[in-house]
Amino acid sequence: MEFWKLFVVALMPVLKVLLITALGTILAINRFHILGENTRKNLNTLVYFVFSPALVCSSLAETITLRSVVILWFMPVNILLTFVIGSLLGFLLVKLTKVPHHLQGLVLGCCASGNLGNLPIIIVPALCKQSGNPFGDVNVCSKNALAYASLSMALGSVYIWSYAYNLVRLYAPKICNEAKIVENSMKNSMSITKSDLENPSTCSKGLPVVSVIDDKSQSEDHVKHFEIHCTKCDDGKTEEAQKVEMIMKQLKRLIKKINLKILFTPSTIGAIVGLIIGVVPQFRKLLIGDKAPFHVVEDSIVMVGYACIPVMTLLVGANLMKGLNGFGKGLPMIVGITVIRCIVLPGIGVGIVKCVVHLGLIHPDPLYEFVLLLQFAVPPAVSLSTITQLFGVGEGECSVIMLATYSCAAVSVTLWSTFYMWLVL
User: Residue 153's Cα: distance from chain center in Å?
Assistant: First the structure.
């Protein structure tokens, strides 16, 4: 009977998500066309730049303190483990099902990156509001749940846009050639071509000279002239020193080409601001609490952030419409991803989290343990749809994968949530 009660508690938040998702799907069909492509783009922009950062910032600022940061240290490690284990399982799936090369990045990304933002931030606080929830006082539980889920969203955003983004990019047919240019330049810099011989100023760049003169018609005077210039550019440096200098220059070029804007998404910036406000006592006194001089600023951010959850859920439903037309393509790949995300990873997560708790590495908080476990059980990240659109590869396949995994997640997340609550109590 106890298990049945937990099942009902776990089912209610998932049903809420399903109802709002279904509404988003209905609004996206051609007959209504309320959530058309342009509307979805505009709403995605609002969620990405406004609603999501506001929700993350306000939630972390209210609940995270310096003490809680120390307590929650394992969450980044736990999310990293979901990505590493998911990638290994995805690699096995790619080899077994012989996934086409241009889709391998998408498959690895779907297996590695879960929906660490939308679903936890909806499900976990909703669980606290259910009568008979196993996590104690409703207000305290809701407050902590929102903080845990917000931190999960912020960390997940960093991992997804730094790891999954580059996975899809590497396997995309039209890859940016910047990395290749840097790599080729590092190889080619160790040898002088014929054009280098005709341009002695190349030596002034500090590159080491190892040449094979294959143009026998060159005059000895020209060769001597070239060797004089190369001798001057050495400036007393040994060959090893020149190699080190050349490698450092190439590294600097590579660092300049890394787009830090991808890593520092609006949600990540919101998380950083929220953490600073929560951890620094002076900022906390100014902004947090009814007696704070500028509490109206914090209240306004909270109001804007609350719009994030329903809008994101509607968009998930609207985006699933794309998968209805292509369902049935690449069935082994879709089944494999669904099994990994809905069955294998959640089971592995149980072993990891219970081992960490048994070793005493994290504080014994049932709600915190539940969130760590839930991070293994969520379907693929919705952000992958955006990433595939950016590179123009696997958009249709991504929509089908999302439709299949999220349909199965309606059952799997409910069952795993029930089991997790029973396990942590």
Answer: 9
